[in-house]
Request: fold
Amino acid sequence: MIQSLLIANRGEIACRVIRTARRMGIRTVAVYSDADVSALHVREADEAVHIGPSPTRESYLVGEKILAAAKQTGAEAIHPGYGFLSENAEFAQAVIDAGLVWVGPNPASITAMGLKDAAKTLMAKAGVPVTPGYMGADQSVSTLAEEADKIGYPVLIKAVAGGGGKGMRLVEEADDFADALASCKREAAASFGNDHVLIEKYILSPRHIEVQVFGDSHGNVVHLFERDCSLQRRHQKVIEEAPAPGMDAATRAELCAAAVRAAKAVDYVGAGTIEFIADGSEGLRADRIWFMEMNTRLQVEHPVTEEITGVDLVEWQLRVASGEPIPMAQEDLGIEGWAMEARLYAEDPAKGFLPSIGTLELLQFGESEGGRIDTGVTEGAEVSPFYDPMIAKVIAHGETREEARERLADMLSDSAVWPVRTNASFLVRALDHPDFVAGTVDTGLIGRDGEAMAEEPEPSETVLEAAATSLVPLYDMPAFRLNAAPVRSAWFLLEGETREIALAGGSAEPASSVLVTEQGQAWLLEPWRKDAAHGAAGGSGSILAPMPGKVIAVEVEAGEEVKAGQKLLTLEAMKMEHTLTAPFDGIVAELNAKAGQQVQVEALLARIEESE
Reply:
């Protein structure tokens, strides 16, 4: 068995691996960048090594620094987690060449499944059903557009080296193809260093079903059943569950058998996931489920599989990497109950899901029977602009799907974070959506109904009254009404707006402000004098950077007339592209941005003046 392990990752997955390794008596080594000097994974590991500046390309993505840290600390093995270098075949080979144990599949398996076009060809030969599409070497715009026409719209443009929703565009009409292709290639080149794409038929009622597989060096491959990851926003998973609702035993058997064939076709060793797309228009049927891709690593959503099978997948990874066979045979694996996972992010749904950075001055998670929190932060930690803004994975297990759903909703509702914004209330609304409750979600649900789920939440009057009462001084005498409880009202500031709140009953000691928490959200309530000087900025045509980032495209010139909603420029930040548009019809009176420019949060990029 491995005695010492370096985790080449950060955040919650690093903490997750450390937790299992500690239980197994394995010494752990963490690596960290400047931004992570005080991070939870650094504090939890037995030893930690600094590997460079905050940007990932100067720290977590530099394989040489990871290997040097392993050599420095005497680590025997390297666990890559997910993301970063986890599916980098060259790094995996470098680890092996250095005489270390790579906790992952063979580099050849990573290479075989790393490019979506080659992987699909290989899967078709192995008897695994694949979606119709174009995977050719000719990457000219004219050829790709012609192939899209042959497939028939809508189509998906996908980076062949993509993953995690990056480098993917849905195109519904031929007129939009060229622009979508250019954007997809640009994002693919920036994220993966490879701008080649493939074209796929877009399934109109798509469900994302994936199968957890596991192989060992003794020729054994098993599956640990399926997960449903259909609730997505812009191709990124939001809520995952296991098993998949509506999956009958016969379809499950055929699907999982196909996943095992896929893994065996590349002599797979370790934890992997075979992702399928299903046409859910007539329920889940084996003849309407097709291979999409394989992720040659542990998945973000692996806890739901652990919860229904009772298996610690990280323990299995470490045992198999040490040369042991898979601990359980296929016939010994079964499904127990239901599990769901929600990704709690530091982002503001009401503002287009822009990441929210800052200090987690308040961080509390809801609790429930069957509940689990996987996180890489604690109260007082910083959410930085350098990494994925996930705060935690909130997981609930129950005997039935409905019990798991209710428990997860309760855990999210009872969570509170301040002053960083989160998507907690959005997740609760998603869990309560009739389609999710019925188990009939497809990947387009948030695209159709997400606007209502993302609306700015409001605290209830009951919660506001209780909070406001705590701010009113004892000497502020209530008005007297015959045959009624004492009633009064006072003015407060909530989210920058004034509110008059009726108060009933007694009062507590005065305070300067109070934090209001409800349904997973937090608001700051402050006393305010009605006659105090105040003002507001409304109606501004100033286009400010919503976060630190890089300007990658400027679509207008100073003096140009623009229409409301017209694209002005594109900002790349937090590994995503963000389009900034004109707030109203007008003229570009000021333009301070140019392509390639690095900008800070709230930098004035442009200013639009209304047309007369």
